[in-house]
Amino acid sequence: MEALQPVRGTRDILGEDQRRHAHVVNTARRVAGLYGFDEWSTPIFEDTRVFARTLGDTSDVVTKEMYSFVDRGGDSITLRPENTAGICRALVTGGLTQSLPQKVFYAGPMFRYERPQKGRYRQFHQIGAELIGAPEPLADAEIIALGWHILTALGLAGDVVLELNTLGDTPSRDAYRAALVAYFQAHAGALSADSRDRLARNPLRILDSKDQADRALIAGAPTISVYLTPEAAAFYAAVQAHLVRLGVPFVENPRIVRGLDYYSHTAFEFVTTRLGAQGTVMAGGRYDGLVAEMGGPPTPAVGWAAGIERLSMLLTESPAAPRAVCVVPMGEAAEAAALAVLQDLRRGGVRAEMAYRGNFKRRLERANRIGARAVVILGEDEIARGVAAVKDLATGTQTEVALTDVARVLAV
Ligand code: ATP
Ligand code: MG
Question: Quick check: do 15-169+229-314 and 325-410 share a fold?
Answer without folding.
Answer: no
